[in-house]
Write a structure and sequence with these properties.
Blueprint: H1 2-25, E1 35-43, E2 49-54, E3 57-62, E4 68-74, E5 79-85, E6 88-94, E7 99-105, H2 109-112, E8 114-117, H3 120-137, H4 140-144, H5 148-168, H6 174-203
Parallel strand pairs: 1-7
Antiparallel strand pairs: 1-4, 2-3, 2-5, 5-6, 7-8
Length: about 200
């Protein structure tokens, strides 16, 4: 009886040892990263609620008394998002696993946007592109009141400026860069499409 018990104990011990080693050596399945961390400091903010939207995401982030904030954004895909503060808004490019910090003076919204951290290169490009577009396009009524040849020449110069600006920014995500090259084409085509209607409206022709 003792011999049988001893044999059974040895079998049990061997089974447990194999099971333990299997558990120890089997790699754990890592949970996929489906979020981005967004933090920063906003000065002179009249509104204390920052809203981030895009690609199914709708997130409200409350600013602390000193203008700082930090939150985790669950994003299902890499891509373009928008943050809003009061009536102002700006585009962002977020990727899963990124950790990006915003620094901004709400009194000089577009002009003061600066990013640091992972993903800062793409987002600083978007901020500078927004300013470049605003300056290049000028006043809507003046732009669309131009004669057809002058209007198309201005649009072509704008497209080339955007592409040059894109190529001057080193270290951009390749997927992001390809999307921005297409976007420069879309800006050109969309404004050409608007021209007949807008020109007729502003020139009363």
């Amino acid at each position: 009886m003792n011999q049988i018990t001893s044999t059974m104990n040895k079998i049990l011990l061997a089974t447990l040892t194999v099971a333990f080693l299997a558990c120890k050596t089997e790699p754990k399945e890592e949970k996929p990263i489906d979020y981005a961390v967004f933090s920063g400091t906003i000065t002179n903010a009249e509104d204390d609620m920052l809203k981030v939207t895009g690609n199914g995401l709708e997130k409200e982030i409350t600013l602390n008394d000193d203008g700082t904030f930090r939150d985790t954004l669950k994003i299902e895909e890499n891509g373009y998002y928008t943050f809003r503060l009061g009536r102002e808004r700006s585009s962002m490019y977020l990727t899963q696993g990124s950790d990006i910090a915003l620094s901004m003076d709400a009194a000089q919204f577009d002009e003061s946007i600066k990013y640091t951290g992972e993903g800062a290169t793409e987002n600083n490009y978007l901020a500078s592109k927004s300013l470049a577009l605003e300056n290049a396009m000028g006043k809507t009524d003046e732009l669309f009141s131009l004669e057809p040849d002058a209007f198309e020449a201005k649009l072509t110069a704008l497209k080339n400026e955007l592409l040059n600006h894109l190529n001057e920014n080193k270290g951009l995500n390749e997927e992001f860069k390809k999307q921005q090259e297409l976007d420069a084409q879309y800006v050109h085509l969309i404004n050409l499409d608007k021209y007949p209607r807008y020109n007729a409206y502003f020139t009363k022709k």
